[in-house]
Amino acid sequence: MERNEALDLLKGYLKNENLIKHSLAVEAVMRGLAERLGEDVEKFGLAGLLHDIDYDSTADDPKLHSLLGAQILRDHGVPEDVAYAVEAHNEYHDLERKSLMDKALWAADPVSGFIIAAALIRPEKKLAYVDVKSLKKRFKEKAFAKGASREQMASCSELGLELDEFLEIALRSMQKIADDLGL
Fold this sequence. Notes:
There is one protein chain. The protein has a single domain (3-181), classed as Hypothetical protein af1432. The longest helix has 21 residues, at 17-37. Helix content is 63%, strand content 0%. By secondary structure, it is mainly α. The protein is globular. The chain starts with a helix and ends with a helix. It has eleven helices and no strands. Residues 15-123 form the HD/PDEase domain. It holds the Pfam family HD.
């Protein structure tokens, strides 16, 4: 599936603009991680872009989230490893995160929201003014962006990355699409 086709598919299922921006942010982080890890950038990007495709339909039933999404992707001919990564990103299903793509999506999902929160507390409200040092400081503050699981982000170690490098990759990747994110 080409990226434009995937974006059209996503917009066919997701109507919430903030969720679309979240999907774009996770896609950017996944692409950055794939580049760093020497993996398939397009596949990683696809997993990031489409990981919450079912969220409008499953927001009230977290146990259904990602099961429906993975089925939608399978029905549209998305590669099985991408569909599995989407399915495994929801902890309710207790699926093993086997591949680097599975593990990357698990870590990338919360870091995107964490970085956006860091941008939004700045007076400029721009990603350009966020740096890794400030992210590391905020990482230790449990009340800051408390919905962004520190444990999930710290799982970047399963990718062979230290937290500093992971935050750097995620931040730089999101800064590249700041205009698309409105930040």
